[in-house]
Amino acid sequence: MGKFDGKVALVTGAASGIGRASAQAFAREGASVIVADIQFDAGRETVRLIEEAGGEAKFIEADISKATQAESLVDGATRAWGRLDYAHNNAGVLGTAKPTHEIDEADWDRLLAINLKGVWLCMRYEVPRLLEQGGGAIVNTSSTAGIVGIQALAAYTASKHGVAGLTKAAALDYAKLNIRVNAVCPGGVDTPLIHNIEHPESFPPQAMPAMKRLGTPEDIANAVVWLCSDDASYVTGHLMVVDGAMTVQ
Ligand code: NAD
C-alpha cells in the first residue's frame, strides 16, 4: 500500500534533477504520474524509469511559461487518469550569474516567465480541477534564494522570492477549500542546474551548507511527497527549507 494509491500527481520539470526524483517518489507511493517538461527524450526517460520500477507515468511535452501549454498540460493530465490530486510546480532555470545592472532585459523576462509566471500559470489551471474534486495539494519549488539573497543571481532570487509570496497568498485563498499550498526551498542540490553555472567562483562562501555536502534530488523529493501526504494535513503556506543548514548560518 502506497500513500498515494489511486491518486494522480503532475510534476513539471520532471525530465531532470529534482522533478525526476519527485516523479519517481510519487510513483513509488502508488500515484499515477504526469511527467511534464520541454525536454522530450529526457522526459520519456523519466517515464521509462518509473515503469521499469513498476509504476505508472505518462509524458506531456509542455513549456509552462506559455498559458496555452500550461492549460493543455493540465487538461491532458486530468484526461489521462480522470483526476488530479497533487501538483509539484518545479520547472525552473538559473540564468547567467552576473551583477544586477548587467542583466539583459530579455534574460530577466525569460527567467521570470519560467520561474514565477510559469508556476502561477500551472496553478491557475490546476486549482479548478482540485476544487471540482473537493481538494488536493500543491507544492511549488522555491529555493533558499526565496529566503535570502544570492549574490550575482538577482533575477533568480527575485523569481524565487516571488514563488514564496505566491505560495503564501494562494495558501490563504484555498485554506477553507481543502487545497493546501506549500513550497520547498532547496539549497544546493546535485543536478544539471548547478553544474551548468558559468562562474561558480562568483558565489559567496555562505552558499556552502553546514553539512558540507550538496543535497540529492531525493532529499527534496522526500519533502515534496511528505508535504502532499495526509501526514501534512495541517501544513499550508509553509516554505520548507531543505538545505543542510545553509541559510541558518
Ligand atoms: P534541472 O535543470 O535538473 O531541472 C529543471 C527542469 O526544468 C529541466 O528538465 C528543464 O528542461 C525543465 N524546464 C526548464 N524550463 C522549462 C519550461 N519552460 N517548461 C517546462 N519545463 C522546463 O534543475 P533542478 O535543480 O532539478 O531544478 C528544479 C527546480 O529546483 C528549479 O525550479 C530550480 O530553480 C530549483 N532549485 C534547484 C536547486 C539546485 O541546487 N539544483 C536549488 C534550489 C532550487
Description:
This protein is an alpha/beta fold. It has a single domain (8-240), classed as Rossmann fold (3-Layer(aba) Sandwich). It has 7 helices and 7 strands, in the order βαβαβαβαβαβααβ. The chain has helices spanning 17-28, 40-52, 67-81, 105-133, 154-174, 192-195, 217-228, and strands spanning 8-12, 32-37, 56-61, 86-89, 136-141, 179-186, 239-242. The protein is globular and about 50 Å long. The protein starts with 7 loop residues before the first strand and ends in a 7-residue tail after the last strand. The model has no long low-confidence stretch (mean pLDDT 95). The chain binds nicotinamide-adenine-dinucleotide. The site of nicotinamide-adenine-dinucleotide has 29 residues, from α1, α4 and α6.
Strand order, sheet with most strands: 3-2-1-4-5-6-7
Rounded to the nearest angstrom, the radius of gyration is 17 Å
Q: Catalogue the ligands.
A: nicotinamide-adenine-dinucleotide
The total of beta strands comes to 7
CATH class: Alpha Beta
CATH architecture: 3-Layer(aba) Sandwich
The number of helical runs is 7
The fourth-level CATH homologous superfamily is: NAD(P)-binding Rossmann-like Domain
**Quaternary structure:** single chain
Helix/strand order = EHEHEHEHEHEHHE
End-to-end distance? 40 Å
Shape: globular
Tell me what portion of residues adopts beta-strand conformation.
Answer: 15-25%
By CATH, the topology is Rossmann fold
What summary fits the major beta sheet? 7 strands, parallel
**Secondary-structure class:** alpha/beta
Q: How many individual domains?
A: 1
Q: Share of helix among residues?
A: 40-55%
Question: How confident is the prediction overall: mean pLDDT?
Answer: 95
Poorly predicted residue ranges? none
